[in-house]
Amino acid sequence: MDNVFHALSAPVRRLIIDELCERDGQTLFELCSRLTMRHQVNLSRQAVSQHLDVLEGAGLLHTRREGRYKFHDLDLEPLHRAVDGWLVRPTDQDHR
Amino acid sequence: MKIYITSVFVDDQAKALAFYTEKLGFVKKNDIPLGQASWLTVVSPDAPDGTELLLEPDGHPAVGPYKKALVADGIPATSFAVNDIQSEYDRLVDLGVRFTQPPTQMGNVTTAVFDDTCGNLIQIVSQPS
After folding, report:
1. How many helices (H) and strands (E) does chain A have?
2. In Å, how far is B82's CA from the nearest CA of chain A?
3. Would the CB atoms of B74 and A45 count as touching at under 8 Å?
4. What is the pLDDT of residue A1?
5. Which of A27, A42, A49 to mutate to test the interface with B (most CBs of B within 10 A)?
6. CB–CB of A27 and B113 under 8 A?
7. Are strands B27-34 and B121-126 parallel, antiparallel or unpaired?
8. Contacts of B100 in chain A (CB under 8 A)
9. Which helix (H) or strand (E) holds B5?
10. What is the pLDDT of residues A5-50, one digit of tens each?
11. What three-state secondary structure class fits B8?
12. What's the rounded Cα separation, in Å, for the pair B64 and B69?
């Protein structure tokens, strides 16, 4: 859970999640292009790669190798797990 | 000074010529035997005297790791302009061309990226007229 919230704490990583929500299976090049062209976020390829590693460490992103290519897919399950069951007030519980 | 030629490193010149002419629609301009390889260039059919694309053999040991690293990260070796990127995408997909990125709006241009089957990714771009 700490990993998930830490990963979400950086605005650029939330942008990456937004972009991957649009379509799974993006290359590093595509993600870099989207950040630059759509959001004017000019980070080096290495910096974007490091942000992807943080998201992957939190389980929010998976990498997939297909032959010679490497694609990135989003996984929001860890976020749902982190939020579900947290901050449940007694009145909410009555309705469950 | 002007750019008259640019190049991509290909793993097989005959295969590359077939792909770049039959699938992409370029036209062969020069095919001059030079030892084991050829000086092999193609041009755009609407600009036969325009910039040539050299299909250059990739035998040098430095080229393999270079191409492999670019492809793994999805980085195109070069970029070509098209008028209607969606119809070009559909046409190439029908011909069995593998895309790593379908047409995607990137600011005021739309780009897509495909595999040239010779070891490179190629970007196509449609720019606002």
Report:
1. 6, 2
2. 19
3. no
4. 72
5. A27
6. yes
7. unpaired
8. 27, 30, 69, 71
9. strand B5-10
10. 999 999 999 999 999 999 999 999 999 999 999 999 999 999 999 9
11. strand
12. 9
Best of A33, A41, A46, A63 to mutate (most B CBs within 10 Å, chain B): A33
pTM, two decimal places: 0.91
Please give the domain boundaries of chain B with CATH numbers for all domains.
Answer: 5-126 (3.10.180.10)
What's A2-84's CATH class? mainly alpha
Residues with Cβ within 8 Å of B115's Cβ and at least 6 positions away in sequence, in order, are B71, B97, B98, B99, B100, B121, B122
Among all residues of chain B, which has the CA nearest to that of A70? B72
Q: Are B101 and B40 in contact (CB under 8 A)?
A: no
pLDDT tens sequence across B51-71: 999 999 999 999 999 999 999
Domain ranges of chain A: 2-84
What string of DSSP letters covers B49-106? TS-EEEEEE--STTHHHHHHHHHHHT--SEEEE-S-HHHHHHHHHHTTPPEEEEEEEE
3-state secondary structure of A64: strand
